[in-house]
Design goal:
Protein name: beta-aspartyl-peptidase
Radius of gyration: 25 Å
Subunit structure: Heterotetramer of two alpha and two beta chains arranged as a dimer of alpha/beta heterodimers.
Helix content: 25-40%
Distance between the termini: 79 Å
Number of helices: 10
Pfam families: Asparaginase_2
Number of strands: 14
EC number: 3.4.19.5
Strand order of the largest sheet: 4-3-2-8-7-1-13-14
Keywords: Autocatalytic cleavage, Signal
Order of helices and strands: HEHHEEHEHHEEHEEEEHHHEEEE
Shape: globular
């Protein structure tokens, strides 16, 4: 009896010992997965400093949302490519405005601002919309007033000497090219009226200037008119968030809002699936919500590569001349890009990398 008791006791200790190391291996294994795959930062274009800023925040334990804001804020401060932050992309009146978005893939909350004037901190304004309102998108001067009331600096002149010089050159070229269609200007730079106006007017001597945008395009001039930073972050806990910031299309019609603050177009995130970042011709891309399409396709089982290519192909079938790109990221941290009309690059930082790496995607 005593021997049976001792045997049972030894077996009990052995079971506890095995159970302890089994549980320990599970914990260590989970930590290994975190260290190997997370955090992860992915961004459109070679915006290396922005990715470094987001990585530093995420690697230091910040949430995915806060890390995205850090990364996009760095790009705004650096005025990445002249297409992010203040001082770039003047509209027809020579003014720079800001579009931005942030999305929490865990809660599915979104904050965004569009055509925001006088406030340079687009992504921070977007986060304030998400944190302190029940709304998703605020626009124009009212977005500016909200951002300033919540403590962001302003009002500030968002133009720069470079943007004003670019605008003056464009004006001297009879405001060509531009984004108008099916109109005739009273003067070389407007005001514009629908071509059908002439059928109903008694103004026999209305002076008109033929439009040249079909002959002289932004692409012909080599102008980069819509380069958004769109960034996805997976933090140490595996939480996913996305953010965007842009000063929009160069020489846009005042009041235009691009796809930057449109959830599902420029970016999208779902904690259960992954995320998507997009850049390109926003006026066309927002009609297809390519990032929502990418994430939804991955949710239905499609691999990131196929999901990205499929989203781009859907647009190209209707608009074969469009220029754009997406980056698909699944919840395991696998990433891939797809593009149309240009050669696209995106930036990545993961624990397996010593620094930010640039990936090139051919159309």
């Amino acid at each position: 009896m005593a021997m049976a008791t001792r045997t049972l006791f030894r077996n009990s200790l052995l079971f506890k010992f095995i159970l302890f190391f089994f549980l320990l291996s599970m914990v260590l294994g989970h930590e290994t997965v975190e260290v190997e795959h997370y955090p992860l930062v992915v961004s459109t274009w070679p915006f290396v400093e922005a990715v470094r800023a987001a990585w530093k925040a995420a690697d230091g334990g910040s949430t995915a949302v806060d890390s995205v804001v850090e990364g996009c804020s760095a790009c705004e401060e650096l005025r990445c490519d002249g297409t992010v932050g203040p001082g770039g992309s003047p509209d027809e009146n020579g003014e720079t405005t800001i579009d931005a978005l942030v999305m929490d893939g865990v809660t599915m909350e979104v904050g965004a601002v569009g055509a925001m004037r006088y406030v340079k901190d687009g992504i921070k304004a977007a986060r304030l919309v998400m944190q302190h309102t029940e709304h998703t998108l605020l626009v124009g001067e009212k977005a500016s007033a909200f951002a300033i009331s919540m403590g962001l600096p302003g009002p500030t002149n968002l133009s720069s000497s470079e943007s004003i010089e670019k605008w003056a050159t464009w004006k001297a070229n009879n405001c060509q090219p531009n984004f108008w269609k099916n109109v005739l200007p009273e003067n070389s730079c407007g005001p514009y009226r629908p071509t059908s106006y002439l059928e109903h007017t008694n103004e026999k001597c209305l002076k008109t200037f033929g439009m040249q945008t079909t002959d002289l395009s932004f692409h012909d001039l080599g102008l980069r008119i819509h380069d958004t930073i769109s960034m996805a972050v997976i933090d140490r806990m595996g939480r996913i968030a996305v953010g965007t910031s842009t000063n929009g299309a160069t020489f846009k019609i005042p009041g235009r809002v691009g796809d930057g603050p449109i959830v599902g177009s420029s970016a999208y995130a779902n904690q259960e699936v992954g995320a998507c970042c997009a850049t390109g011709d926003g006026d066309i891309m927002m009609r297809f919500l390519p990032c929502y399409q990418v994430v939804e396709s991955m949710r239905l089982g499609m691999e990131p590569k196929l999901a990205a290519k499929d989203a781009i192909a859907r647009i190209a079938r209707k608009f074969p001349d469009f220029m754009g790109a997406v980056v698909a990221v699944n919840k395991k941290g696998e990433h891939v890009g797809a593009c149309h009309g240009w050669t696209f690059q995106y930036s990545v930082r993961s624990p397996a990398m010593k620094d930010v790496e640039i990936f090139t995607v051919l159309p």
